[in-house]
Amino acid sequence: MPVVTVEMWEGRTREQKAALAKAITDAVVDIAKTTPDQVHVVFYDVARSDWAIGGKLADDLG
Predict the structure, then answer these.
(1) CATH for 3-60?
(2) Which residues are bridge partners to 42 per DSSP?
(3) Residue 4's pLDDT is what?
(4) pLDDT tens, 4-62?
(5) How many angstroms separate the CA atoms of 62 and 40, rounded?
(6) Is 2 in the active site?
């Protein structure tokens, strides 16, 4: 049972997440030779204020 965790800044729509989940599932099925029902994709939406790049909070980067 492959589990794929996606962490990204909040703000994506449900439709965007659904499309991404489908694309990830298709890739895992193709490469790992499993079935779609065995692939789990978990999304974690992270606020920009909780994400830092180069020592600076992302919401300060513009």
Answers:
(1) 3.30.429.10
(2) 5
(3) 98
(4) 999 999 999 999 999 999 999 999 999 999 999 999 999 999 999 999 999 999 999 97
(5) 33
(6) yes
Compute the distance between CA of residue 3 and CA of residue 21 in angstroms, rounded to an integer.
11
Looking at residue 62, what is its pLDDT?
A: 75
Cβ(57)–Cβ(51) below 8 Å: yes
- In sequence order, the 6+-apart residues with CB closer than 8 A to the CB of 34 are 2, 28
Q: Per-domain residue ranges for the chain? A: 3-60
* C-alpha–C-alpha distance, residues 61 and 42, integer Å: 27
Q: Which candidate in 2, 4, 34, 51 is catalytic?
A: 2
At 35 the pLDDT is 98
